[in-house]
């Protein structure tokens, strides 16, 4: 169908909006859930799997993929498409009561069940004829509205602009969402002619629109993924047999593994990359999985026996939720060495009561703490990524507790063993309790005092224990920091483990965790021990409920303050004794009254001076340099500017950008992805803005803590950040001018003019081809770790 013919047809069909709304049932019959699944061997299945779903991924899933998808519309799988949309908001920082969860595959198992929960269809659920399949489909009407608006602009002589879209477009994350069912769509289209899909992005091409029109008019037939290979099925059987042995020891270990990996995408590294989720089932291996759906992974399963099963991941892989975790013979050997070889007994299984299950130091007390620490350390990036990519998916309240750029190190197993000695953790388990014990409807007022007192008791006991250990000739030096030495005898990496150092970038209400010490020396750093690592996971991953009330969310945020500060104190103890407080005061300029009182009530540093021999007066910078040497064997170079084939002049120009501070950086968005074209070669960089703060203790008034004069910019080779703010493109020959103009940038007007020459704005006709290039490059650069980038944070500047 040509665009001009389409315009006429669309106008004719939508011209009598009121009549259409009033007569949907008469024209096309009453709504009834349809069966759209076809056999994988049919031509319809091939069209869906090979053409339709890939196109939906490239143009729709980039906004409609997670909890934060507009209208909860997830187009990542047939089940998500069939479920449709909801007017209910998941992300809310003000609700007084928790809301029922609406997790795809878990909280309803049929399309009809989703209708009963208030979700409305985006596909036609009336008479299955071509006209109804289009005109009674919200998905088609949304796409067609965009095509109509684009054609209307062209017919009126208005050229498609690559500049800023008008204010009628609202791109704020908390914007009011219409979420119109089909009976409301005509009114929506009249009131919001700019509201077609993809929203605020270029329309689909004629070929793309024709493909989806053809699919929708034919009844939107969909197919499940092709059957798993015999090799994959054999691996699944092998792992499920190990995870479901009948001994109490095995059941407790499997529970521990599940509660840490329930968000991960498991894959068999010897086979092609097919992902699985570890789930709790009422049924044993060999039978169909019957999901145990609970708010948290440790909630009462209400069944006599829990089975841990590998369920195939059916959704499109998104960068913002992707936590890959390899399973292979080496991993199995590692698990056996960690959990089976140590001598310990499990006499009974722990309770699922919230006060017990929310506290891993009670629940898993029987498993040696060293085993638990080894398990979490071996894939520390995955562990930390859980709170970045986990149930939060979007949430300033979860990440405004961390700085914009900092490095993370870990305490060695030997040092941790000393801290764990004499039943120390068992004695302290009551002081290590977590806010999730109050479940999803928690109070707000009393939390700071209660948990601050418990944390104070724990830190005082920990300080006594550490001072005791240091009095026994232990050294306070780099031997306390894990250098990546292999954690088990089964490791196959002679260089060591590259999880030993991590870099975290915060991008306002999202964040990224990467391996290595990436970027310039940061203001702060963390040194994490086992109790910290475990509490971070049970606070922000296993124990966090995105559907919880304001009390639950605030309690979580307040408690994370303690964990951040404890990790910072650990790191500061490596500095000379006389400058620790000075450095800490710099990190916490203008802290609030509650925090000031908390910090002043007790000394948070150990009594022993550092045994590191410092030769300069810039102790922190020198310490970072020593740590780089300490970790040299395992620091990856994936994000280094000097990659093979990158011209030295280009590296030097990127380093110029890395030196920028203040005004030029102020104008930049959180993350910008730069494509440099050099003949037939393309190189991609990430420009990550590091927003400076006087301190990270402000709960509701973060803006008062901003220090724009101290903002910095990190530039890396490759892609960092799951939510690009803007795309940039430049020819290699123009790069010096690109850099010079950015370095001279002072105002928003300067930034806008710079984007005119180098930006690929969301309104740019080149946007989708450019998007496809970046998504493809990302997949090539990191085949396992990559997923679709998300466009819900694209700016309109």
TrEMBL record:
Q: Which domain of life is it from?
A: Bacteria
What Pfam families does the database record attribute to this sequence? CTI
Q: Which InterPro entries match?
A: Fatty_acid_cis-trans_isomerase
What sections of the sequence does the record tag as coiled-coil?
A: none
Keyword annotations of the record: Isomerase, Signal
Q: Which residues form the signal peptide?
A: 1-19
**Single GO molecular-function term?**
isomerase activity
Could you identify this protein by its name? Fatty acid cis/trans isomerase
- Taxonomy-wise, where does this protein's organism fall, top ranks first? Bacteria, Pseudomonadati, Pseudomonadota, Gammaproteobacteria, Alteromonadales
